[in-house]
Amino acid sequence: MRFVKGHGTENDFVILPDPDGGLELPGPLVAVICDRRAGIGADGVLRVVPAKLSPEVAAQADEAEWFMDYRNADGSVAEMCGNGVRVFARYLAEAGLVDGDEFSVATRAGVRRVRLEPGGDVTVEMGAPRVLGESRTTVAGREYGGLRVDMGNPHLACVIGDPVAGLDLTRQPAFDPLVFPQGVNIELLNAVGPRRVVMRVFERGSGETRSCGTGAVASAAAAAHLAGESTGSWAVEVLGGTVTVILDERTSYLSGPAVLVASGELAL
Ligand SMILES: N[C@@H](CCC[C@H](N)C(=O)O)C(=O)O
């Protein structure tokens, strides 16, 4: 099985081309591929499959030729991945599977429009973040309040007063399973300047990652909400770099680097 490896601000993915739609991806196989010792190692898998061959997104096939079938490192399926769709776009362009610098990608959360920027960044229109209310998490015995944000996938974005650098995110933070029956991606962030935050994230299905695109937009939306703002450009510093989030009245945009670093043959 042919694979390509890529990342967006060090949120890394194994890309699996599946032009005929015949590739089965049971959860245990995804988990082995993503294992950093027994496999290639990644935060998730991006299967590249024609939308028209994928019943769950066939309705998007008029707008988007390719479906990003995203799986977390533990093999679970997720609706959306902001960095993943940027890396997916880079792959489609480098593989010659799309024309031009702007095109659409089908995802479980709906069609996402992407643009390859001249300087090497990839921008994706992420849709409007939906701030749904409050909830709480406990990290290493300490409780934090945050805002529930729907980005197509579920987030709890907690703006905290302290620097996030010292937080212990080696274990699953506690959350309310009644509020998040499908699990949740948990962001902790603190402000370090005007519309500039530092974020760490514990992703559903992948653990702590070095970046999360949907999490960055959720974090910017939560910080803006608390500041009484609904528009503006936010810099979100993550362990793997910095991404830019633009919020406007209608939608949001996520920009940052997306690179392919290796390719090969999977011997699984
Ligand atoms: N890293 C991603 C999010 C991937 C999915 C997430 N773990 C979930 O289960 O919802 C991003 O860049 O958005």
In the CATH hierarchy, what is the class of the largest domain? Alpha Beta
Main sheet overview: 18 strands, mixed
Number of domains: 2
Quick one: overall form?
globular
Number of H/I helices: 3
Q: From the 3D coordinates, which CATH architecture of the largest domain would you assign?
A: Roll
**What would CATH call the homologous superfamily of the largest domain?**
Diaminopimelate Epimerase, Chain A, domain 1
Order of helices and strands: EEHEEHEEEEEEEEEEHEEEE
Give start-end ranges of low-pLDDT stretches. Answer: none
Helix content: 10-25%
Mean pLDDT: 97
How far apart lie the N and C ends? 8 Å
Enzyme class: isomerase
Active site: 81, 212
Family: Belongs to the diaminopimelate epimerase family.
Protein name: Diaminopimelate epimerase
Overview of this structure, please?
- Catalyzes the stereoinversion of LL-2,6-diaminopimelate (L,L-DAP) to meso-diaminopimelate (meso-DAP), a precursor of L-lysine and an essential component of the bacterial peptidoglycan.
- One of its GO terms (molecular function) is diaminopimelate epimerase activity.
- Belongs to the diaminopimelate epimerase family.
- This protein is mainly β and 268 residues long.
- The protein has 2 domains: 2-125 and 256-265, Roll (Diaminopimelate Epimerase, Chain A, domain 1), CATH 3.10.310; 130-250, Diaminopimelate Epimerase, Chain A, domain 1 (Roll), CATH 3.10.310.10.
- The chain has 3 helices and 18 strands.
- It has an 18-stranded mixed sheet that branches.
- The longest helix has 14 residues, at 213-226.
- Bound molecules: ligand LBFN2T5F.
- Residues 11, 44, 72, 78, 81-84, 153, 185, 203-206, 209, 212-215 line the site of ligand LBFN2T5F.
